[in-house]
Amino acid sequence: MNGYACIESNGIVVSYRMVDDEAQLEPNEVFRQTLPEPPPPSFADYVARYTPLLQDWLESVARSNAYDSVLSCVSYKDSGVAQFAGDAVAMIAWRDALWKWASEWQAGFNGQLPEKLPTLEELKAMAPQPADSGWVVHDQAKVIEARTS
Question: Edge to edge, what strands does the sheet with 30-32 contain?
Fold first, then answer.
């Protein structure tokens, strides 16, 4: 009789493997012929899903101006090259605005899932945009000139 050797925590299957019969169970496992339906996602699951997607958006915007990452971009804040310094200031402003917005937006649900979960594109459309903080995508072929003192 095939089934599943399951490890459960508070009645939720946290891991499983297929077995031929109950004789193959380890001491901490229970035998199930079918797997129970997973619980619906919690608000914490929702936050854990969208947080890295927003961070990926930040990273892709930084890369649009040839920075390796957000961290690389913001490190140019005191650069002698006006374009780099301006990018850093804009990225810091947008990063702060985005995470402030995300925190306030999530808090508005009081730990409850919204009736309709937005797609990433819908979420991005609701969020502050890079241009709102002065982010400009530069022509990569343009020569960058240093600031004159």
Answer: 12-19, 3-9, 30-32
